[in-house]
Amino acid sequence: xxxxxxxxxxxxxxxxxxxxxxxDEDRLVDGATPLMKELLAHDDWLPTxxxxxxxxxxxxxxxxxxxxxxxxxxxxxxxxxxxxxxHDHTVWGIIGMLxxxxxxxxxxxxxxxxxxxxxxxxxxxPGELDIVSPTRGDIHVVRNALADQVSISIxxxxxxxxxxxxxxxxxxxxxxxxxxxxxxxxxxxxxWARSSA
Length: 197
Ligand code: FE
Hints:
Blueprint: H1 3-20, H2 25-40, E1 59-65, E2 72-78, E3 86-87, E4 93-99, E5 102-109, E6 115-117, E7 122-124, E8 129-132, E9 140-144, E10 151-157, E11 166-170, E12 175-179
Helix pairs in contact: 1-2
Bound molecules: fe (iii) ion (FE).
Fe (iii) ion is lined by residues 87, 89, 140, 142.
């Protein structure tokens, strides 16, 4: 398969999966996991514009958004030392490392609203996956593992993540703020004008 076809093949397979198992998180995550592993097995398909870092902010480039909002695929580009706030997703998500490395720390939310770390920090390396969802653990903070290199992970979500209403948290006080992430890019990659196979 040529590099340009990998993303289109993923999107086609994911669309079939969404069609077959709409609303069934377990079957969607089980079906999407090998598709993500396959996509991450090669680092030759991500368009250069979708791999661009920003000097101040981590970037969320939309690679593909399902027209029916059943899933979206995003390239998360970490500049050196960049980090998210503590946040949730409210939909399932599969995070896969494409280039270099990132670290994720999960949090639990107590009945008093305060957040405490859940387990130790996980380091993702190319080809490795992490899964988030309201049923599997949905709150975390993520950072570039390196202070002197760009890292890139590919995120698949069970909704249009740029438009989903979710939350950021202040761990010590338990303060919660509503947020909608949007996307960094104005245009998604053109998957359809290239030759296939
Ligand atoms: Fe996240």
